[in-house]
Structures are given as structure tokens and as C-alpha cells.
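Retry 2 of 3 after timeout on previous attempt. Resubmitting C-alpha cells to design endpoint.
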């Protein structure tokens, strides 16, 4: 009997006792790093999503805002964290795709140090101009840009951001030249845009929707394959014959590399379940944001394609880290 007990104990160790300990995960609050300022669209979404996921997982999810350096500060923190399922990252294009392509001294490698959990949402972007602008369509803008090469100015939230790179796609595919005016964030750029200078900007739909409704900004096109339900009369860039001008902001969950696969699966399942919640769906639809969901493998594949697409554009136009 004693020998049999010893055999069972040794077998448990060989089969990996830590795996049985993981079955009780999560046993304490979860630390969720959001590398954006508190109160912004990404932070609000993370808090709503985190609250629903916490109900499913049975533990509190603590949102930790680590804004700065285009999201790379927060990404670096999670890359260094213990891979035990208690530290996650809610990140986007900049820290995972663009900055790794144009910076040689990031303190982490997204492919080596982080692992995909799942894509949460995607936010279509719109080309906007001031309400008093002479441009009433994207064709109007393109015609003038061709007639006055380099004389039209476009704003962005900063060098290397999707707000720049989407317009770089437009310049490339429409065969036009315009001058880039980078700002430190979308808010000051939008403020100047409303005043009439610079002449245009590409922005996340939720960031400018209130100004469009108030008649302070005029949308010219959405850089997305389909029209938005909250702006159903706004044409897509594809409808103007610019099918490759597709730009969006997306957010997804990641964890430190070497996080056990079973924990990744549970995280992914909790995220997908939360995205289907009626409250989350209503919030996203009101903002013009689309839920994505799906598997960790699908998100990892998507990121790799974005590295090729957006990373290549960032390098080609000489984008730099501000």
C-alpha cells in the first residue's frame, strides 16, 4: 500500500502538479495594463470589458493605466511580467506593429515577449475637414491636392500613428502630395482642424462623432470596406475607387510570453463571452465600433499581417518615434 501511494505521488509530479494548481486560476485579482490615459475611449472600453470578464472569471480585474510613448511603456511592463495569467495587456497598433517597425531600441520584442489572447474590437476611421471647408467630398479634396501639390496640410495624432499612415495610403493610391502636420495627440489636432487649419485629418470615428453631429466637422469618407451604421450616408474610400485605403484602430488582449495555454484559452473564452453581452454590444454600436472576438491564433495572424502592411508603410514614409 505504501509503495502504491509513493507511485501515485511520483506520477502526479511527472504529469505536472503545477497544471492542477492552474485549475484554480484565478485565485487573486488580475492586473490589466491599459497603455492609454484614463477616461479615453480605450480606457472606457477596457473597463467595461474588464467588468464583464471579472463576473465570468470570479475575480476583480484592476485596470492600470500606463500611458506614454505610444503605448510602448505599458507593453514593456507586461513583457517583463511573470507569465502566470495575472498580468494582461490591452494594446493596439502602435506598440505592437508600428513602433517596433520604426524603432531600434524598444525594450521588448512583441513577437518574442508577448502572446496574443484575442482581438477585441476594431474602430473604423473617417477623413474629416472643418464644417466651413470648401471640400464637400473626397473627390473635391483629391482634385485640389492634384492641382496644388504639397500645399494642403493634414493633421495627425503624431508621427507613425494610424492617423498619419491612413492618409499616406490615400496619397499613394490617389497620386497626390500633401504636407503632414503631426500633433501630440488627437485632441489638439482636432481643435485646430475645427478652426480650419490644417485642412483635413483622419481620425477614429468615436473621437470625432460628437463634432460631426454638432456640425463642427464634415466627414468626407470612411476608410473601411463597408459603410458605418451610424453614418450610413458616408461613402467608403473603396466607393471612390481607393480599395487599398483601409485604416482603422484596433484593440486586443495579450499576455506575457510563456503564459500557459490553458490560461490563454480561459482568457480568450471570457473575452469572447463579454463581447457578446448586450451592454457591451450597445456601447460599441453607439460608438461606431465593431466587436471582433475570435481565437488567439486568429489575432496572432492578424498582427503579423499588420506588421507587413502598416510597418512597411511607416518605414516607406520615414515615420519616426516622437
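Retry 2 succeeded. Sequence:
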Amino acid at each position: 500500500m505504501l509503495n502504491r501511494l509513493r507511485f501515485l505521488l511520483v506520477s502526479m509530479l511527472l504529469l505536472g502538479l503545477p497544471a492542477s494548481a492552474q485549475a484554480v486560476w484565478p485565485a487573486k485579482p488580475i492586473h490589466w495594463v491599459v497603455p492609454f490615459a484614463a477616461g479615453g475611449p480605450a480606457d472606457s472600453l477596457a473597463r467595461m470589458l474588464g467588468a464583464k470578464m471579472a463576473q465570468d472569471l470570479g475575480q476583480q480585474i484592476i485596470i492600470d493605466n500606463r500611458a506614454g510613448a505610444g503605448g510602448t511603456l505599458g507593453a514593456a511592463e507586461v513583457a517583463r511580467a511573470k507569465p502566470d495569467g495575472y498580468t494582461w495587456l490591452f494594446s493596439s497598433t502602435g506598440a505592437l506593429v508600428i513602433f517596433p517597425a520604426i524603432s531600434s531600441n524598444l525594450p521588448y520584442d512583441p513577437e518574442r515577449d508577448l502572446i496574443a489572447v484575442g482581438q477585441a474590437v476594431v474602430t473604423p476611421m473617417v477623413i474629416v475637414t472643418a464644417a466651413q471647408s470648401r471640400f464637400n467630398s473626397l473627390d473635391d479634396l483629391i482634385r485640389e491636392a492634384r492641382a496644388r501639390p504639397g500645399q494642403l496640410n493634414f493633421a495627425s495624432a503624431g508621427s507613425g500613428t494610424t492617423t498619419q499612415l491612413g492618409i499616406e495610403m490615400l496619397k499613394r493610391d490617389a497620386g497626390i502630395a500633401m504636407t503632414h502636420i503631426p500633433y501630440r495627440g488627437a485632441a489638439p489636432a482636432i481643435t485646430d482642424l475645427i478652426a480650419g487649419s490644417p485642412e483635413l485629418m483622419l481620425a477614429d470615428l468615436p473621437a470625432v462623432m460628437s463634432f460631426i453631429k454638432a456640425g463642427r466637422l464634415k466627414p468626407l469618407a470612411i476608410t473601411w470596406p463597408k459603410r458605418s451604421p451610424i453614418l450610413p450616408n458616408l461613402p467608403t474610400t473603396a466607393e471612390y475607387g481607393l480599395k487599398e485605403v483601409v485604416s482603422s484602430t484596433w484593440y486586443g488582449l495579450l499576455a506575457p510570453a510563456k503564459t500557459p495555454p490553458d490560461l490563454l484559452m480561459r482568457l480568450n473564452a471570457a473575452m469572447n463571452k463579454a463581447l457578446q453581452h448586450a451592454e457591451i454590444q450597445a456601447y460599441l454600436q453607439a460608438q461606431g465600433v465593431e466587436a471582433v472576438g475570435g481565437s488567439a491564433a486568429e489575432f496572432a495572424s492578424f498582427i503579423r499581417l499588420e506588421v507587413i502592411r502598416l510597418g512597411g508603410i511607416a518605414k516607406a514614409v520615414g515615420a519616426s518615434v516622437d
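Attempt log closed. The beta strands are 30-34, 61-65, 87-92, 114-130, 153-156, 179-182, 200-204, 217-222, 248-256, 290-291.
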